[in-house]
């Protein structure tokens, strides 16, 4: 008698149905929606009950007034905190804000509250799409006292720059590279710090696009800068370029959050600036070679493959790499880590600069191999350092230690497979 479940010789068996895939985890999506509603309520309470502190608002409005009155010489557009040092996009954004708010602080706070929620929505979308964090850790994105202050109690232009940056990243993870580059350029036109993401973005473009595609994407970004700057480039081009795109500005030692422990004489020296620039570029190259291009064999093998695979100049210009569809996790990792390297090597971080990288912190921490409790300690430690005012030698030294610890964790973590197509 044949055993149950066994087929005798010559019997055909019907194939068993393949198991259905597990249903997607909806908790991150639901929790993200809850966070948006809860944080919107918190922002409303902050605007209603926490006193506003004027720092740069009056200076912004004075600069906008000078622009509206026809001044096109950047050396003559000033406010009570000094001369205008931002590209032209800043003037257009704050001119629109003044038009909508009549220059009044309270309606501007409401507008920035809406901007805060828009920015948080974009960041949450990036996190939900990458699936790097557990759902509950998304709450960390709403737990910064300093970032709430930067948005709705200070009204800094950093808020608009970073919102545009996060919008460009959302477009890029959906492979809308050309539009993403335009929005990225718009972010740069509001504040130059966004250029810290530029090396990472260029590397991703070379991995995902043809040389022709890279050229046209960069041309579109450059064209936007020219278009926004036309009123100043036609009348006072040298003054505009030297002021709006000045990469050599020296910041005041008192306001430094990260290098307060450095003596002021050394802090303002060219030696420190050059050393940090060399360290920045070296660290980017090392991460690119050993982490971001690990699966391609490193920087030189990747560049060589672009030439080797092309049988003609035309094919080199127009053809994409064999694997070109980048994964969401890889895009976000390279962008966030590249920016964070710039943060670690920055000569001076002021309080509003925290918005440059706060929203990447949970992602970066969960990319490290550290235990969860260590990640939480690092996150809380960074937040505490940014809420000590004025900063001290001890708080800035602690912040630098925390930054380096996170960077070491990122270095020691395994490199993710970069492509959405192909085999791992």
TrEMBL record:
Coiled coil (residue ranges): none
Entry GO CC: endoplasmic reticulum membrane
Keywords, in A-Z order: Endoplasmic reticulum, Glycosyltransferase, Membrane, Transferase, Transmembrane, Transmembrane helix
- Molecular-function annotations in GO: dol-P-Man:Man(5)GlcNAc(2)-PP-Dol alpha-1,3-mannosyltransferase activity
User: What does the UniProt entry say about where the protein is found?
Assistant: Endoplasmic reticulum membrane
Top-level EC class as recorded in UniProt: transferase
Catalytic reaction list: an alpha-D-Man-(1->2)-alpha-D-Man-(1->2)-alpha-D-Man-(1->3)-[alpha-D-Man-(1->6)]-beta-D-Man-(1->4)-beta-D-GlcNAc-(1->4)-alpha-D-GlcNAc-diphospho-di-trans,poly-cis-dolichol + a di-trans,poly-cis-dolichyl beta-D-mannosyl phosphate = an alpha-D-Man-(1->2)-alpha-D-Man-(1->2)-alpha-D-Man-(1->3)-[alpha-D-Man-(1->3)-alpha-D-Man-(1->6)]-beta-D-Man-(1->4)-beta-D-GlcNAc-(1->4)-alpha-D-GlcNAc-diphospho-di-trans,poly-cis-dolichol + a di-trans,poly-cis-dolichyl phosphate + H(+)
The family database entries (Pfam families) matched by this protein are listed as:
ALG3
Can you tell me where the transmembrane regions are? 29-52, 99-118, 155-175, 181-206, 213-234, 272-293, 330-350, 396-414
Presence of the UniProt keyword Repressor in the record = no
Q: According to the UniProt entry, where is the signal peptide?
A: none
Q: What's its EC?
A: 2.4.1.258
Q: What is this protein called?
A: dolichyl-P-Man:Man5GlcNAc2-PP-dolichol alpha-1,3-mannosyltransferase
Q: Which organism is it from?
A: Oryza brachyantha
